[in-house]
Give the backbone structure.
Amino acid sequence: MANVSVFNMEGNEVGTIELNDAVFGVEINENLVHQAVVLQLANNRQGTQKAKTRSEVSGGGRKPWRQKGTGHARQGSTRAPQWTGGGVVFAPVPRDYSFKMNKKEKRAALKSVLTSRVQENKIVVLDELKLDAVKTKDFVKVMSNLKVENALVVTAAQDNNVVLSARNVPGVETSVAANINVYDVLNHKTLVVTKDAVASIEEVFA
C-alpha cells in the first residue's frame, strides 16, 4: 500500500495516510481510460447541429434553362449543391452521440487514473477543508499554501462554502467523492482530496 503525506490547510505536513491498493494501486489500463474520456466527451455533445439538403432548401422548382442549346452546362435546379444558396451534399442532422460502457470498465478506468496520480506524485491529501464563509481569497490562500494551481478538489460531501469559494478560481474545479470521473481527474494537473473523501472513494470503489 502506498503511503501519502497528509497536509493541513496551512500547507504543513501533519501525518501520512495509507492508500488502498485496490483503488490506488491497480494495473493501469490505458485503453479503458481512453474509452472513458471519449464516452464523457461524446455524452456531453448536444448533437443538435443541422443543415439543409437540396430537398429541404426552398426554391429551385424548375430548370433554370433548357437542357440543350444554351452553351451552359445542364442544370436541373438552382438549389443543387453547386449553386450559391443550394443545399449541403451530406448535411449534418441531429443525432445522439452517446454510447455506454460497462460499469466494471468505468470503475477500472477510474482506478487507473487514481493510480496514475499516486505514481506521478500528483495527489495531495488534506486532513480537512473547511471554510467559515464563502470567500474566494481564503480558498486561494489554501491552494497557495499547498503550492497547487490547476487542481480538482474532492470533498466527501457537498460543501457550499468550498464550492462557491472555488468557482471563480481559474483552473480549479470541485467535486464530491461519489461524482468524480476519469475526464475531470485527467483534466487537472493535481488531485486535491480530503481524508474523508479518500475514505469515501475507497468505500465505493474498493
